[in-house]
Amino acid sequence: MATEAKGEAGGLVFHPMDQFIVSPLFGDGPVGLFTITNVTLWMALTIIAVIALMVLGTSGRSTIPGRMQSIGELAYGFVYKMVEDVAGKDAVGFFPYIMTLFMFIVFANFLGLIPGSFTTTSHFAVTVVLALLVFITVTVVGFVKNGAAFLGLFWVSSAPLPLRPILAIIEVISYFVRPVSHSIRLAGNLMAGHAVIKVFAGFAAIAAVSPLAILGVTAMYGLEVLVSFIQAYVFTILTCVYLKDALHPSH
Amino acid sequence: MATESTGQTVSTCVVDGSAVGMPQLCFDWWPNQIFWLTVTLVVIFFFLSRVALPRIAAVLAERQGSITNDLAAAEDLKAKAIEAEEAYNKALATARAEAQKIIAQAKADIQADLDDAVAKADAEIAAKLAESETSIAAIREGAKDSVKEVAKDTAKELVAAMGGSADARTITSAITAKMKG
Predict the structure, then answer these.
(1) Which whole number is the average pLDDT over A145-157?
(2) Which residues in chain B (22-51) have CB-CB distances under 8 A to chain A?
(3) Which of A65, A213, A240, B89 could bond A204 through an S-S bridge, CB–CB 3.0 to 4.6 Å?
(4) For testing the chain A interface, which of B25, B39, B40 should be mutated: the one with the most A CBs within 10 Å?
């Protein structure tokens, strides 16, 4: 998130979206499927951070936890309780999967807050895959566990009979919109926040407004810290809600 | 935002080092991101499900177990303390009753001794009294005799002085009669 604004012929030019460019780490060639890019770097750092917290942090296995182990246990308890409370006791089997999603998103978000870093979760490519994974999992689980009864999710039996077909159409549409909103919510929030920070940083080039611009960057950064966690939380809890629909499709 | 025709250039999404439109919608980069995301998720999932989560679950279970054990032990100790207190109270009550009994016993003993001593003293006093009374009676008797003697002698002398003569018997009987009267 380095300041990118350059004065050109006395004017200001903003490039708030340049921070999202995917580029190869080594060389200058095109970005192929297996090219090692800044995406690779920041995803690797995410893996390292997750392992540092959850594996190395808990390596002591102490009954009285240290700082790192406390945070690891806190994250474990937080997600476990969420899965249990929202999706139900029988969804506990999906806990490692949901934990993976949560840990990846939360660490990718926070690593993206480091100035100059690359925010992997601000890309639709990433969030769409995450959301589709959830969507496919939920749909498959729903049909495997309930068979055709899963379609009862779309047939609102508590509504008056004439309304039910209309409601069914609405329910089907809303069901298929889920992965779209699920993915755009996450990437959109992060992208917007980071772009706004960059715009504020661009204004810092003008001496007259630079204190205000720096204040704006600081305020936005604080907000982004909140957003980073809240969006990870929202993504995870929505996954739990969808999973609950799959396991208990009755309204 | 051209999504096709990558060619040999870096990308049509970047011109002069700046992004064209939203880099998020540059589909040239999608396969790369999706590939690395898949790798990342698989690695994180592997580490979490194989190592981290079972370990944390074990630690939490162990902690829960030790907390439960400690609580049970504390409950046990508390019961023991209550028991000990009860035993102490019981012992205290027993000791108090014992002391009460001993005090009563001692009081009774002292009373008995006292009664004994008082009785003995009374008997002694009575004996002394009787003795004194006899000796007083004896003295009184002796005094009477002496008075009779003195009266007889005086009477004889008086009679002689007045020129009369009287035999001893008459005088004695007269004195005895007088003294009786």
Answers:
(1) 86
(2) 22-26, 28-41, 43-45, 47-49, 51
(3) A213
(4) B40
